[in-house]
Amino acid sequence: MKIMVINGPNLNMLGIREKNIYGTFTYEDLCKYIETYPNYKEKDIDFTFLQTNHEGEIVDYLHKAYTEKYDGIVLNAGGYTHTSVAIHDAIKAVSIPTVEVHISNIHAREEFRKNCMTSPACVGQITGLGKLGYVLAVVYLTEERKK
């Protein structure tokens, strides 16, 4: 199974930015955590991890997931979650099950974060569970989608 994990703006700054919200783990720590989570070894999951600070590049990554026949996408679009019709449209265009993930609880933060432009295009949203949210998204894509 091929799963693309796309992280948007400022996620490369994990471990540096707002540690009280995002914790002390780095972006590299996050990728390693996801890839080496204990149950994945027996599931034969091929992960691709991508990060960009540019909206159009996220759209390009989503298109790449389609052309390279990925089975699922885990997406943390960062601040673009709240503003990007282009990313919303790209998720819908590729028709690949996409789970939106946020490390912090966006619904308990600033008012503008409660508006999610990308969520309606996704099969679900996991928010506020830290890096475990990514793992739960992968579990959904590998287990629950089969039912």
From TrEMBL:
TM region(s), chain numbering: none
Residues given in the record as substrate binding sites: 76, 82, 89, 103-104, 113
Alphabetical keyword list: Amino-acid biosynthesis, Aromatic amino acid biosynthesis, Lyase
CDD domains per the UniProt record, alphabetical: DHQase_II (cd00466)
Gene Ontology terms describing biological process: amino acid biosynthetic process; aromatic amino acid family biosynthetic process; chorismate biosynthetic process; quinate catabolic process
Biochemical pathway: Metabolic intermediate biosynthesis; chorismate biosynthesis; chorismate from D-erythrose 4-phosphate and phosphoenolpyruvate: step 3/7
Enzymatic class: lyase
InterPro entries: DHquinase_II, DHquinase_II_CS, DHquinase_II_sf
Annotated active site: 22, 102
Pfam family, any one: DHquinase_II
Annotated site, Transition state stabilizer, chain positions: 17
Catalytic activity of the protein: 3-dehydroquinate = 3-dehydroshikimate + H2O
Superkingdom of the source species: Bacteria
EC number: 4.2.1.10
Membership in a protein family: Belongs to the type-II 3-dehydroquinase family.
HAMAP family (alphabetical): AroQ
Subunit structure and binding partners: Homododecamer.
Protein function: Catalyzes a trans-dehydration via an enolate intermediate.
NCBIfam families reported for this sequence: aroQ, PRK05395.1-2, PRK05395.1-3, PRK05395.1-4
Name used for this protein in its record: 3-dehydroquinate dehydratase
Source organism of the structure: Fusobacterium pseudoperiodonticum
Lineage: Bacteria, Fusobacteriati, Fusobacteriota, Fusobacteriia, Fusobacteriales
